[in-house]
Amino acid sequence: xxxxxxxxxxxxxxxxxxxxxxxxxxxxxxxxxxxxxxxxxxxxxxxxxxxxxxxxxxxxxxxxxxxxxxxxxxxxxxxxxxxxxxxxxxxxxxxxxxxxxxxxxxxxxxxxxxxxxxxxxxxxxxxxxxxxxxxxxxxxxxxxxxxxxxxxxxxxxxxxxxxxxxxxxxxxxxxxxxxxxxxxxxxxxxxxxxxxxxxxxxxxxxxxxxxxxxxxxxxxxxxxxxxxxxxxxxxxxxxxxxxxxxxxxxxxxxxxxxxxxxxxxxxxxxxxxxxxxxxxxxxxxxxxxxxxxxxxxxxxxxxxxxxxxxxxxxxxxxxxxxxxxxxxxxxxxxxxxxxxxxxxxxxxxxxxxxxxxxxxxxxxxxxxxxxxxxxxx
Length: 377
Known about the structure:
16 helices, alpha/beta
């Protein structure tokens, strides 16, 4: 395929769904960026009527439903039929790890280059799917896209995939509609802390609640905490907060739409992300985009995102004392915190804006297709 032919690419994107998760946000950013760059994008989803479908419809990107069959084999055949029925794509790509099965097999059936995805850490992926199935899903496609440097390195360390077939495509955020914010600081005001994420141990929610309990009374009276998200430990987390932190201003908001999450980010003063294990977290990118000072765990690619002491503050995972101490410090010096938020926003604008995604995809994905076809795939 010549460079000229690469100017307009037809892309079939396989999605496990279009709900409210991080992978779904990246699907939306990817599709809109490719569409804006003049490429043809068609999305094929396992689930129908999900809350975030409207973002694609509004952008003029069609969504087809191939999950009408429970049998995976019938789904594969139906997906192949839908793709052949439409515009034959130049590539098939999946963002959810389990949908690599569909993109990989359909790609082989139709002789179309396929790109699989892995989001987060490889060891967690294997823990979810098991070693045998996990390795199969990571190798069924022609190429594999990792959304973080740490995940890519782990794949190599575990010998899960041949290096030349791997690609790093970091998460991005669409800054359109997120104006630069300069937080007004009044030391007499309550410092509004925000947490977004699943309510499970691995996301550090228990560490955050323990950190709140460690705050001195005079500091605790100066802060409030909003918790966005749901999860398997939601009931236990709420019960703990009601019993052990009854004197604290803590509100559980449940799962919210992207628009609602953005409203909460807009109204917050400090973002805390104490996760135990991460790849390249959307939540941190979003907080940075809203110029929020951030306290986050030193895991995954977070140290690549946040320059400790300048655009945010890093703590060790599973360290409620460090979180508590840093909250106390920032509550008393919110002007310093505001400066960190400004630097965080600038870092996103320079390195992680969705406006640059099309160019990055052209460099790391389209060139793979070009070389692959020219080498006689």
